Amino acid sequence: MAGWVKGTYEGNGMEMHYLRTCGNKPPVVLLHGLMTSGACWTPVARALEKDYDVIMPDARGHGNSGVPDQGYLYENLAADVVSLIDALDLVSPVLVGHSMGGMTAAVVASRNSKRLRGLILVDPAFLTLQRQYEVHESDVVDQHRRILSGSREDFSAEMRVRRSDRPHEIIELLVQARFQTSIRAFEILTPPPPDYVQLISTLDIPSLLVIGGVGSVVSPEMAVELAELNQHLKVIQIAETGHGIPYDQPDRLSAVVQTFLSSLSA
Fold this sequence. Notes:
The chain is an alpha/beta fold. It has helices at residues 42-48, 74-87, 100-112, 129-136, 140-149, 152-162, 168-179, 196-202, 220-229, 245-248, 250-264; strands at 5-11, 14-20, 27-31, 53-57, 94-98, 118-122, 207-211, 233-237. 42% of the residues lie in helices and 17% in strands. Strands 1-2-4-3-5-6-7-8 form an eight-stranded mixed beta sheet, sandwiched between helices. The longest helix is centred in the C-terminal third of the chain and has 15 residues, at 250-264. The protein is globular. The protein starts with a strand and ends with a helix.
């Protein structure tokens, strides 16, 4: 992270935080998922920074960004991304979003495609209405409260045992982000979710859907159906991982992202 800039901007009435690799290079914005932060993209950003100006914002209620009393729906998160593009004067950025960030990126692209050069959705949170209700009614918020009531050190030790397959750096970034996530951020799970079928159908820029294997939100069958809806959407599977693609296979994901970005300038 040497040479990276930590910055803030005013977005929709609050202070928003971001990390940026900088440089006079094509901009790429990396959008994180629920309970993580922009810094959790660090391994991917390292792979991209030589050729791209990589910007990693913290979503509202996450990382070092503001925690407003309300406004945690996807339309709010999408408006924050547009504010980021405006505040930093980004010209034709490519959006890359994972999970919640993937859904956010899809909403931004569906409404502001002329301002973007491309879109990469990494196992986006494309939940059916029924699944959204199930997640909303689950104990995910109570689990988060229990974690926040404990110590960061204990949680870190637990994660190092539970996810021994992940590098310690990634584990520590995820642990830090978890303790920076406000309970309010879970309002993003409030039904109904955006209609992802409609979002995909309206895309008119080069787009890539990256899915995992067992445990992914977007199944191979669902990915095929979405690709059939729009000629601009291509699909790539990294089968050796589940939903946590940026953390379990950062090198593979970085290679996929780099190939797609290179194709945009070919």
